[in-house]
Known about the structure:
Layout: H1 35-44, H2 47-61, E1 65-67, H3 72-77, E2 79-80, E3 83-84, H4 85-95, E4 98-105, E5 111-117, E6 122-126, E7 132-139, E8 142-147, E9 155-159, H5 177-195, E10 202-206, H6 216-227, E11 245-249, H7 254-257, H8 259-273, H9 292-318, E12 328-330, H10 339-351, H11 357-363
Antiparallel strand pairs: 1-12, 2-3, 4-5, 4-9, 6-7, 7-8, 10-11
Helix pairs in contact: 2-4, 2-9, 5-8
Amino acid sequence: MRMFGRKAGRGAARPLLGLGLARSGVPLTGAAPSYETQVREGYLRNPVAQRAVRMVAGGLADAPLTASHPELIPLVAARGEGQALLETVATHMLLHGNAYVQVLRDADGQVAELFALRPERVTMELDASGWPAAFLYRAGGRVTTLPVDPVRPQVVHVKSCHPLDDHYGLGCLGAAAGAIAIHNAAAAWNRALLDNAARPSGALVYDPGDGSTLTPDQFERLRAEMEGFAGSGNAGRPLLLEGGLKWQAMSLTPAELDFIAAKSSAAREIALAFGVPPMLLGLPGDNTYANYREANRALWRQAILPLAGGILSGLSQGLASWFEGASLSVDINRVTALAEERQMLWQMAARADFLDPAEKRAMVGLS
């Protein structure tokens, strides 16, 4: 059994990779923002990214499971300290690219609970050959060392593929960062527009013709009057200007900036980064799929099921020492979104007269 990339002959020297990476797998070169900053800006403040992640993670958490051992399903479905394991692990995989699941044992050494650790708090300690020797978990000013045990691991590490790193995975948050920044900037601009009487900013130009300027008292009185016209509640309220003053617009209109199109394009790019069909997020101008049923099927086939396969196979491999031949997978026959697809497969199997009953059962995925 291979655990954490171990295999026969691991004592051979191996290049030390990943030394130029931060704890979260973000390159240290340049001014790359921290993972916490990316989460706050890209997930907590962005409705499109948050909804996309929750659709994938929530769908995975609610997916019907099948297991080789009946004890495995309640183990991965249990909530520890209010944490839904599969939903939390899926969220960490999408945002960070790494998920660390601690295996908690009882007095007899058996698996009692699985708990997902926050990935930005976990780092790997490598041995002289470049293989993981321990996981370091930093929280509350303390560092907990969890040694790597190839037989009965204390931590199961599940990661996505990172082409430039052997030890850390690559999340979707970085790829969506540019589109998220545009979408957040558009929302902030729209908020500022509403706060400023729902009109573009401009200037009052005093031009009496003789080169004179406003007195300090006139300037303060005019500024006080202008402040009384600000705010969304005063939108459309006429402004009375005295002689010598004229309004000069200073910014482009939303149409000139192509504001709505830019915001919608950014929203579609965010959905694309997380593998969610834009139609399911209610984004306008996306007609890739004929209806919501096709889009929902694509969400399961292209996002939820591949992610579930990686997570469940990683957990199965980590728990194989306690449950011999452990396997966890999504029961596709019970996924509502794929019912039509499965019905077509069953009809094809029923009409295949050249197959015997055992071959038809194997065709539809039954033992």
